[in-house]
Structure formats: structure tokens, C-alpha cells
Write a structure and sequence with these properties.
By secondary structure, the protein is mainly α. The chain has 10 helices and 2 strands, in the order αααββααααααα. The chain has a two-stranded antiparallel sheet with strand order 1-2. A hairpin with a 6-residue loop joins strand 1 and strand 2. The longest helix is centred in the middle third of the chain and has 28 residues. The two termini are 28 Å apart.
Length: 232
């Protein structure tokens, strides 16, 4: 992997492009022309080239072998299945360990309790674009909190490394409005199990949430507006 100093122009270019891919502004198959990005981002070729290498490392971009050009990758159905299966193993173990740590008092429950309170507030709001955006932000911070508090740091790093491959699929998972409400309930169940210090229940709720999210992504393929997002 290419390494750059924090706060560099490469970091800025990478963060901008990764965000655009995750939000769907740069869709699957979109060209990532180095020349066009240099002009659009107002940067020299070196940071843009390094940012593209990092996106390739993340699996968010691929290089066209015949032309050497770079484009946004198109996740495959098999790849999504493998991704969520791997996430279930890693995140299930992490949330189990975290619940045990919370039960023993070796990790403070304050961040988890804060998330639970915030989610209760979101659940009381009527569905809206603002609530959806707020829940996406919440879900990101929920995942980041699990990563930050997980006692096994190697496990935490492995989960964090998968994040770029997952976030871009959120819009497909929530293509039906009812999925958002169900996902909120699933997060409430995970938080309740964590606060109860019940590792087994937390793991079961986490694995169930990931399975239902994966099923929602596959259901999204039935919507022609989402059909371009994944490849068979």
C-alpha cells in the first residue's frame, strides 16, 4: 500500500474521492481519469495518482488492464456475499468481546449509552430525508465506536479495513423505506445487548443485522434504478 503523511494533499484527494464513491456521486464503472481529476481537484498529478492507488487498495477502484485507466469498481453479488459473511465473523466476535468487557467494567459503557439515547431520539422522529441522513451518520458512528472500543486491536483493525467496501452499499440496502426503520430496531437490539453485558445476545443480534442488510441489498437488485450498482 502507498503511504503518505497525514494531512497531505494525497489525503485530501483520497478523502474527497472516497466520499463521492460512498455517496454514489461516482457510481460503479465511473471513470477516474487522472487528467480530469487533476483539473477538477486543482492538484498536481502526484497526489491524485497516489489517491487512486489507495482507492484501488481499498477495492473501491480498479485499473483497466487493456488501457491502464482507472474506474470505480463494481461489486459482484458473490463479492457482497463474501464481504458480509466475513463481516459477520469479525464483527460478531468484536461485539461479543465488547459486551464482555462492558460487563466486567474494563470498558466504560458511557459511549454505548450515549448512542442508545441518541437512537431513541431518532426513532421518535417522523421519517424524512433529514432523519435518514441523521441515521446514516449515527450508523457510521455506531460502527466506529465498536471499532474504537473493541479490546482486540487486531480485530478492530480488520473491521476498519473493510469499511470502505461496505459504506457505498448503504443506499442499496435502504432502497425501501421500511428497511431504515428495521435497521434502527436492529441497532437498538445490539445496543441493549451491549448495555446488558450479554455477549452471546450481542453477537446474535449483530449477525442477524448483517444478514438482513445483505438480503436487503440483494432485494435492491429487483429495482431497475439500482441494477447498475452490482454485477453478477
Amino acid at each position: 500500500m502507498s503511504k503518505v503523511e497525514p494531512g497531505s494533499k494525497t489525503d485530501a484527494a483520497y478523502a474527497r474521492l472516497r466520499s463521492e464513491i460512498e455517496r454514489g456521486e461516482l457510481g460503479a464503472g465511473a471513470s477516474l481519469s487522472e487528467h480530469a481529476l487533476v483539473e477538477r481537484l486543482g492538484l498536481s498529478r502526484t497526489p491524485v495518482r497516489d489517491a487512486l492507488r489507495r482507492l484501488i487498495d481499498d477495492g473501491l477502484a480498479v485499473r483497466d488492464g487493456s488501457r491502464g485507466s482507472v474506474r470505480v469498481s463494481t461489486p459482484s453479488v458473490a463479492g457482497v456475499h463474501d464481504l458480509f459473511g466475513f463481516r459477520a465473523v469479525l464483527e460478531g466476535a468484536a461485539i461479543h468481546d465488547l459486551a464482555d468487557a462492558l460487563a466486567s467494567g474494563s470498558v466504560s459503557s458511557d459511549p454505548i449509552a450515549g448512542l442508545a439515547e441518541e437512537l431513541r431520539g431518532l426513532g421518535e422522529q417522523a421519517p424524512s430525508r433529514e432523519r435518514t441522513d441523521a441515521f446514516y451518520d449515527f450508523a457510521e458512528r455506531f460502527d466506529r465506536t465498536i471499532i474504537d472500543l473493541t479490546p482486540n486491536r487486531l480485530l478492530a483493525k480488520a473491521i476498519a479495513d473493510l469499511r470502505p467496501r461496505t459504506v457505498r452499499l448503504r443506499g442499496v440496502a435502504h432502497h425501501r423505506p421500511e428497511r431504515e426503520a428495521r435497521s434502527m430496531a436492529e441497532h437498538q437490539a445490539m445496543l441493549a445487548a451491549l448495555l446488558a453485558g450479554d455477549g452471546e445476545a450481542a453477537q446474535l443480534e449483530c449477525v442477524a443485522h448483517l444478514r438482513l442488510t445483505m438480503e436487503a441489498i440483494f432485494a435492491g437488485l429487483a429495482d431497475p434504478r439500482q441494477a447498475h450498482t452490482l454485477a453478477f
